[in-house]
Amino acid sequence: MDPRESRTPPEGAIVVNDRVHIPASALTVTTARSSGPGGQNVNKVESKVDVRVDLAAIVGLDDGAQARLLASVRTRLDAEGKLRVTSQRTRDQLKNLADAHDKIRALVAAALIAPKPRKPTRPSRGAVERRLDEKKRAGERKRSRAGRGDD
Question: Is 22:57 a contact under the CB 8 Å cutoff?
Answer without folding.
Answer: yes
